[in-house]
Write a structure and sequence with these properties.
534 residues, mainly alpha
Length: 534
Amino acid sequence: MSAAAWGEALAAVGGTAGSSTTVVSICVFTAVLCLCLVAGHLLEENKWVNESITALIIGCLIGAIIFLLTKGKQSHILRFDEQLFFIYVLPPIIFNAGYGFCLHRFQVKKKQFFHNFMTIMSFGVFGVFISVAIVSAGCYWLFPKVGFGELDASDYLALGAIFSSTDTVCTLQVINQDETPRLYSLVFGEGVVNDATAVVLFNAIKNLNISQLKGGVVLKVISDFLYLFATSTILGISIGLSTAYILKALYLGRHSTDREVALMALMAYLSYMLAELLDLSGILTVFFCGIVMSHYAWHNVTANSRITTKHIFATLSFIAETFIFLYVGMDALDIDKWKTSKASFKTSISIFGIIILFVLLGRAAFVFPISILSNNMSGSSERTPITFKHQVVIWWAGLMRGAVSIALAYNQFTFSGVTSDPVHATIITSTIIVVFFTTLVFGFLTRPLITAMLPRHSRALSRGHSTGSNSPKDDFTMPFFSTDEDASGSGIVLEQAKRSISMLLERPVHTVHIYWRKFDDKFMRPIFGGPQSH
């Protein structure tokens, strides 16, 4: 096929392309995905470049080539549809984040997660609310000053949610779990909770009718958020437990391991689609479904199915992530959006600068205060404090924006990936530039920053302190779930109750976790599967 023929075929994509053109486009895009995988392998040892950056750069190069071949008519191989992203691309990414959370290779991560639970939840929930408020208010204040003030209140709130979602994958690729385990745990945990919180909050904002609320906007957003969070979590846990029970009761693996794997995959996808059907948060539902499946269902399948599910879910997530960053690279050169946007170059740069400024300020506004509060609440605990250098790394590492931000922006400001509104087109192009800039610049600089802020001897020191508590307090007895027969005396039970209450007041999260493990071993695992923790 000649260059002119390729150009005509590629230019037809996104419109009413014929089946042959679509097949050509899919073949080309698949080949480019393979190129990203090979390039990522060759750059594996490079400390400055991760796979997200690789996919962005390759996407930009491919977009430039297509742009030249089509004589400026097109820069895409395929047209992005936000519904395609939410229905097919996002579920495997989020499910794998939950499913991989409790598997054996993540045990250190899980232990660290619960050890730093309150800090992580503060970062991932309260931090998102603070960031949304600052980004929304900042854009509302400064956008009109640069000649861009045509957005309504709900759009400004949506912008806050869009740019408060961090890119977990890109962040974790440049932080080494073995070198800085607690730091890794805080960034990982925040990323997991942050994405879910940002999407749930975005959905709550979309459901708002600003014109009828007036003074009750904040309370309405919070109430909708709590409703979506609670109901989506319950739905995900319920489907995960149902899957675990079916696998345990029927033992499908005795006839075919394929059925086990298929059931887990289909039930996970069902949880996401059912949540969307009920106007809940599919992201939160499939995430908790993944956690429950890995905690219970994973133990009810054959050894071959355990290996298969772990790798197939990780592979689907990897391909989906690469797809998104590859598309973002190509979308940076989308001439249609740049033509639709009526903003001048100066205005576009001003909008980009305002967004970056308030992303930086919004993140700083909660990372440093919450870290200080966490250190003060820890008191004389055996946990090492979050040092100022750690706080800087956490602040910096969470500045990258990625797939979720792109998807939310398309969901709010386009229809099937296309918009004819100049204001919305400007927001889309600004979002792409922000994602591109933060992933490339902050992604390039995160590892050197960690090297400069945390010398190797400091990392080794923190590694020795942050894997959890070895305090005798960890081994105290929980009378409410005690199985010891010699603890039946009222005096002993009373003394144990006093110790338990004292520990609950001193270390509430740790104490609740111990109670949960006792309850899990005694009631949940015998029904839904999994080895007991002791």
